[in-house]
Amino acid sequence: MSMVEETGAGLDGLSQLRKLIACKRRPGIMVSLDLEFVEVEAGRAVFAGVPGDHAYNPIGTVHGGYAATLLDSACGCAVHSCLTATQAYTTLELKVAYHKAITRDSGMLRAEGRVLSIGRRAAFAQASLKDASGWLFASATSTLLVMER
Question: Where is the Thioesterase domain (predicted)?
């Protein structure tokens, strides 16, 4: 069974994402980086992960792409949760700001994405990446193209 069939082709975006969480199947990038899709509601999505050695770069901290992946996933799925069954999206732009270095000692990080606005052709979202204490490690804004399938 394909990911689309398993996650609800023909359903609106929010229903698809709820089904994805319920089936506990993780797309490849989530397996590679050991990330979890933990919450979704209309206009909001949350991803989480514990950075470890698998996410390190050559200079001794967690690679910026780890944070960017969490933030892009949160922004994208927040927008996806607002789509109809006949719509799709793709990220056009992701701007990431890194506020604090991430290390294996950072613990569980949560990226919470929210839709700022959505129209027929474009959507705008933002996300923040925080630890359990609420420390901000990174933030992002995203522009996404909304299209008919």
Answer: 60-134
Nearest residue to 38 via CA among 84, 4, 72, 77? 77
Please give the model's pTM, rounded to 2 decimal places: 0.93
| Residue in 67, 45, 13 with CA at minimum distance from that of residue 114 | 45
pLDDT in tens, 23-82: 998 999 999 999 999 999 999 999 999 999 999 999 999 999 999 999 999 999 999 999
93 beta partners: 143
**3-148 sits in which CATH class?**
alpha beta
Handedness of CA 120, 4, 143, 83 (dihedral sign): positive
CB 76 within 8 A of CB 20: no
Q: What is the pLDDT of residues 112-143, one digit of tens each?
A: 999 999 999 999 999 999 999 999 999 999 99
For residue 101, give the 3-state DSSP assignment: coil
CA pair distance 85, 135, nearest whole angstrom? 37
Query: d(Cα 139, Cα 84) in Å, to the nearest integer?
Result: 27
Whole-number Å distance between alpha carbons of 135 and 131: 6
